[in-house]
Amino acid sequence: MPFSLNLFRTDPVKARARALYDAILVEARKPSLYGEAGAPDTVDGRFDMIVLHAALVMRRLREEGPQGQALAQALFGRLFDDMDAALREMGIGDMSVGKKIKQMAEAFYGRAAAYDAALKAGDAQQLSTILWRNLFDSAPDQENAARRLSAYAIAADREIASMPAEELLEGRLQALSAA
User: 178 with 155: CB under 8 angstroms?
Assistant: First the structure.
């Protein structure tokens, strides 16, 4: 039996994670999030919208057993590979990229856990407060924007929860109508 080494074979889990991540980027970049909903159209605001959408998708994937958990982990890896590349494109030096990625990963975990807790509790006010603190640094004039984003996140979470598991596990995320 001949030995065959295919160095260019695509890992199917990574391929599905890439497809999900690309769909998450489409959702996180919807102009309505930065206009009507009020998310800050800044590097940090865009990072937070990517984190929010990724956290919602990963929350759903975790419910799908080992296959979903593996895909969620691959999605996390894809997200941070992209963040690494973005930092390098922005001119961040090699010596600083690792430290920044670590800070971003900590921010992701903190936000994802906080969003999950608020969503599990069905507490729109708690979610609004979390978004207000993270996206708007608790600026008093931004409370309404945080409430709008909270309502959006709850609606998006419901939409993602209602999507067929098979589609998500194949790397397909339906467009969200919540925005």
Answer: yes
pLDDT one-digit tens code per residue, 99-125: 999 999 999 999 999 999 999 999 999
Indicate left, alpha or beta for 123 from its phi (over 0: left) and psi (-120 to 50: alpha).
beta
62-78: burial string, b at 16+ Cβ within 10 Å, e else: eebeeebebbbebbbeb
Instruction: Name the nearest CA neighbour of 111 among 58, 168, 38, 165.
Output: 58
Query: What token pair was written down for 23?
Result: 């769909």
Q: How far apart are CA 76 and CA 107, in angstroms?
A: 13
Q: Are 11 and 75 in contact (CB under 8 A)?
A: no
The predicted model scores a pTM of 0.92
163 in Cβ contact with 173 (< 8 Å): yes
Total number of residues shown for the chain: 179
Single out the residue of 55, 80, 78, 59 nearest to residue 68, CA to CA: 59
Closest listed residue to residue 17, CA positions, set 81, 63, 65: 81
